Amino acid sequence: MEFFDWINVVQIFTEYFTVATVSSAAEYVQVVLRILYISVGVAGGLYLICLILGGLGMHTMAKKVGMKHSWLAFLPLANTWYAGKLAGETRLFGQKMKRAGLYATLAEIMYIGINVFALVVQFALYRPEYFVERFNEAGEFNGIYLEVARIPLSLRWLVVANSVLSWVNVIAYLALILFFCAVFFAFFRKYYARSPFLMTFLCAVLPLRGIVIFAVRNNTPVDYDAYMRRKMQQYAARQGNPYGGQGGYGEQGYDIYGNRTDGAGAPPKQDEPFSDFGDSSAPASGAGGQGNAEGGSGSGNADGNNPFPDF
Question: Among 36, 52, 82, 104, fewest CB within 10 Å belongs to which?
């Protein structure tokens, strides 16, 4: 899949930076074919680099988990199936998929077949004799266009095929993206739990699969659900757990209404606001009790040696 994506990327840049003045159909076709050849060649080199990097990445991952046949990661199409094996359990719209890697591979085969056929049709149509120069009423050059009447009857189906393939290609692309998202989201839930959405986007939508997999090759696979539970516990410890206190079970924190609680979720015992003036429930010093004398241990102070109990 990445090969054709790279063709589109390179073709956009090549057309943007190519400055050519054409005045005939032959010159126009020559420029268009040159851009296509450059795009295919550069895309092939970029795809080969990404294929090798992705193969090295999945080979390292397979060794860590003891998975065999890691050489399949270096083969086109087979590397998609192997990524599904490394991903493990996959879900699509909440439903488990046992062979998501296989389905993604089949969708990729269909997408590649359509794009190869589309390239053949394009190369067959770009012939100088099929194009015509057009001029406006003032005799000024207006452009070069494909003239269906100039195409032999036996080859006019190429025009229809070119139009139909553009729509079929979109449908195949969307189906492929769907399966790729399912596979790579499960893949990066294990190997890059911090941001599986971003990594899935880079691999499924952009042609960066090999580079991304190579970058995370040394990551240890994790249980994503357990990872998220641990992250939520850490977040709750920093923000104050409304049900278990701040920082862990049994410590003081805040309830769901913002009131302070003890470890059991109940409001803590409030301090006496007038503790400096003694405890009204304590017996007077003259009635057999011990007063609040300096240095004493009377009930008015939490600590008889602390003259400032409020602080």
Answer: 52
Helix (H) or strand (E) run with residue 261 in it? strand 260-263
**Token pair of 292 as six digits:** 């609040």
Instruction: Please name which of 36, 182, 190, 10 lies closest in space to residue 119, comparing C-alpha atoms.
Output: 36
Q: In this predicted structure, what is the pLDDT of residue 228?
A: 83
Question: Does 166 score more than 80 pLDDT?
Answer: yes
At residue 61, what are phi and psi to the nearest 5 degrees? -65, -40
- Domain tally, the chain: 2
**Is 306 inside a domain boundary?**
no
Domain boundary among 199, 222, 245: 222
Domain hosting 235: range is 228-263
pTM of the model: 0.69
Residue 196, H or E segment = helix 196-204
Instruction: Please give the mean pLDDT across all residues of the chain.
Output: 79
Q: Do 126 and 164 fall into the same domain?
A: yes
Strands 90-92 and 95-97: antiparallel
